[in-house]
Structure formats: structure tokens, C-alpha cells
Amino acid sequence: MPVNFSTKDADFEAQFDALLNSKREMDEDVDKIVSDIIADVRKRGDAAVLDYTTKFDRLELTAETMRIGAEELAAAVDKCEPHVIEALKLAADRIEKFHAKTLPDNLDYRDEQGVRLGSRWTAVQAAGLYVPGGTAAYPSSVLMNAIPAKVAGVERLVMVVPTPDGVRNPLVLAAAHICGIDEVYAIGGAQAVAALAYGTETIEPVDKITGPGNAFVAAAKRRVFGQVGIDMIAGPSEILVVADHANDPDWIAMDLLSQAEHDTSAQSILITDDAGFATQVAQAVDKALETLPRTEIAGQSWRDHGAVIVVENMDEAVPLIDRIAPEHLELAVSDPDALSNKVTNAGAIFLGRYTPEAIGDYVAGPNHVLPTARSARFSSGLGVLDFMKRTTFVGCDAENLRAIGPAAVDLAVTEGLGAHARSVAIRLNLPVED
Ligand SMILES: NC(=O)c1ccc[n+]([C@@H]2O[C@H](COP(=O)([O-])OP(=O)(O)OC[C@H]3O[C@@H](n4cnc5c(N)ncnc54)[C@H](O)[C@@H]3O)[C@@H](O)[C@H]2O)c1
Ligand SMILES: N[C@H](CO)Cc1c[nH]c[nH+]1
Ligand SMILES: [Zn+2]
């Protein structure tokens, strides 16, 4: 059974803290396994990647066959149902349009002293895109990774995707082809992240690794940060649904299960102001679980990590939402804007009874690669800016260097940095007193 408690309970704070601190992904065992895998890939390169692929994905590859060639990617389009390709293209188009609107502007101006100042955005040169594939194939995650990278102008896109038992999902490959990715490797988990970060004999390292994955992928991204950039920790999925009694319990149950079915470590939470409605939803979840294809995974996630919290009124929900900082926040209430405007920490917000989170997973337009494990307190969903970096520039001439330079000389002297002081003073014929 999921945990079920109310703000009226005397031990509410203790129960809420236990929920916040429950470890769903980053336990020490996972971190140890991942650090060993990364060290091994650094030492043995391709051989280690191939060994772990045999171990975890149960398939024998070679340095040559781990790459999925451009012809296979193109041929995959014909293996998919035309209406599904159309759906993929509709999704791609909407995602592209949304992300294009988020391209940043450069800055170039002269300030009051006439000093030229500005900043300029450029794309990272090579990006590694992690597409999950352990327990389900995620063609949508190909789009969500690749499209912002393309919009940003990344030159080299390298996609990795595990293919357990050697099963290559045609729609994943078709999505790569449609997005114009031509360097794809059939590898996953920590070994793929390590290969992208450090390189192997076959795979050139990248500058930035993005994309979602399970606990092993999330831990590996944490570990390689610094060697490469990462987008964020996009680990096992989460949903927090805030729903009043005016909802259909079956709808809300399915929304909770839509994220539970991703992973046994996924987390679904319901906050409601009606205890009777909470019971109806819990019953509806049990009923829905009988019909779902991934009932084992969804059921385990719901039992082990699910939670139902009853509040006295919806205003009480706001600080709880901010403390949970969910990946997805669904506001199934009559005035979603009123609640939404008060929330600070959430990866993505879904407004109103007719905006199920799943619409954002596929076709809405904003990215579905989102921060999990409370990291929405300080990070955002994947976007164009994740594939770009900002360079600032400054241009002085003799006149405006004379206006602002003496202050720099003074500050350099107080920091005891004589060469700094002199590199400015020498241009202005100023004396320096250390
Ligand atoms: N936060 C987001 O934005 C977002 C988006 C989509 C998916 N997801 C999450 O992505 C995840 C997909 O998980 P998945 O497992 O299906 O695919 P995955 O590709 O993330 O992981 C599969 C890989 O995990 C590694 N692995 C599995 N068991 C291991 C073990 N015992 N030791 C070491 N490595 C091991 C293997 O290398 C395997 O190839 C889910 O948790 C889902 O919730 C998150
Ligand atoms: N809900 C996931 C992000 O947590 C993304 C996804 C992909 N396919 C379906 N859903
Ligand atoms: Zn999903």
C-alpha cells in the first residue's frame, strides 16, 4: 500500500520528511557499481563497454556492430506503421517550434563610458544523447534530446540507446533518422555514459551528456560531471497530482499510474483536500492495475513509493509541492492558474483537468526530460540552453580605459596582485604603489 497521511495527523511532519528522504535511486550500492563501471571503461575502453553490454543487456556486440549504421536508421522508417511515423513527425514539429522560441538573444552594447560589452551564445561542439531503453523503448526521448540540440546548432550528435537482448526498436531508430542523428550506438547504462564522457577506441568523447535514464544512468551522469557537462539529474519518473473531489477518480488514477509504469523506482503522489476522494482514487488505481500491460512495474512503484496526502484546503498544498519539488505537477482543480502561480519548485506544470501529464511526454512541445529527486529546486527541464554556452566580451579604447581603469588598479593593489595592477596602469601611464 502507498503511504497515506493527512496534515491533521500529529506526526505529519515526520511522515512528510520520511517521504522526502525516501531513497528511490541514489543508494550507495548503485553509486559503487557505477563508479566501478566507469573506472573499467576508462581503463579498458571498448572491451569494457562490450562486456557490460553482454552482462546487462544480454547481447554480444563488437566494436563494429555496436554502431547502428545510417542505412539501418533510414530503413527503420519503413518498418514502422505510417500513422505512428506521422505521430512522431507531429510531435517533432511541435517540439521544434516550442524550442525555437527559446533561443537566447546575444547582447552587444556600449555603456555610459562607451565601453563595449556583450555576450554571445554558441553551441557545444559535440553532445551525447542518452535515450533510455532498458525496460521500454523511448522514441519520444530521441526527439526530446535531439531537437533542442539541433535548434542550438550542435555539430556532432551521438546517441546511445541500450537494446536488451539485441532488440532494436524501429521507431527509436526512425526517430534518430528523422532528427538527423547519424552516430548511434546500441549501448546503455553507466558504460554508455562513461564511453561518451571519456571516449573509447571507437567512440570519440563528447562535451555534454543529456537525457534521462534509470538510477544507474543518473548516478553515472553525476559521476562524469566535470569531465563533461550534464543537463541535470533526470532519473526515475515522478508525478504529483493535486486534485479536488470534482475529478473523475479513474482519470486521476491513470495519471498516477502513467508515471508509476516507467520504473519500479518511479514515484506517484496524490494531494487532495477530500479524504473520500483519496479513497476512491486508491480503489481506482487498484482496479486500473488489473488492466495495464506494465502492471508489475506500476504496481510495485505505487506500493513502494506511492503516497496520498490529505490537506485541509488547497492553499495548504502549496508549501508541500515546493518541498517535494516534483518532476511533473498536475493541477486538476477548477482554477489551476491560482495554484500554479504560487508554486516555485516543479519541473513542468500541467494545468487543469484536461491536461494529463502524458500529453507533455509526447506532443505538447516543452521537453519531457525533466529534473527528478527534488532537483527541480535548482534545475530545469532540458532545453536549447543546455546545448549552448555564453561567452561575454569587453572592448575598451584609450578614453574609456582611462575612465574605468584606475578603479581596477586600486582593486588589484588591494588584492596584492601587482601584475594585474600594472597591466592596466601601463596603458594609462599611471604609477602603481604596491
Ligand atoms: N526524468 C525524465 O525526464 C525521464 C524521461 C524518460 C524516462 N525516464 C526514466 O528513465 C528510466 C528508463 O529506465 P530503463 O531501465 O528502462 O532504461 P535505461 O536505458 O535508463 O537503463 C538500462 C540500462 O541500465 C543498466 N542496468 C540495469 N540494471 C543494472 C545493474 N543491476 N547494474 C548496472 N547497470 C544496470 C544497463 O546497462 C541497461 O542497459 C526510467 O527510470 C524512467 O522513469 C526519466
Ligand atoms: N514521463 C517521462 C519523463 O519522466 C518521459 C516519457 C517518455 N515516454 C513516456 N514518458
Ligand atoms: Zn512518461
UniProtKB/TrEMBL annotation:
It comes from the Bacteria. Substrate binds at residues 237, 259, 262, 328, 361, 415, 420. Binds 1 zinc ion per subunit. Keywords: Amino-acid biosynthesis, Histidine biosynthesis, Metal-binding, NAD, Oxidoreductase, Zinc. Its EC number is 1.1.1.23. NAD(+) binds at residues 130, 191, 214. Zn(2+) binds at residues 259, 262, 361, 420. One of its GO terms (cellular component) is cytosol. Pfam families: Histidinol_dh. It is an enzyme of class 1 (oxidoreductase). Catalyzes the sequential NAD-dependent oxidations of L-histidinol to L-histidinaldehyde and then to L-histidine. Belongs to the histidinol dehydrogenase family. This is Histidinol dehydrogenase. The lineage of its organism: Bacteria, Pseudomonadati, Pseudomonadota, Alphaproteobacteria, Rhodospirillales.
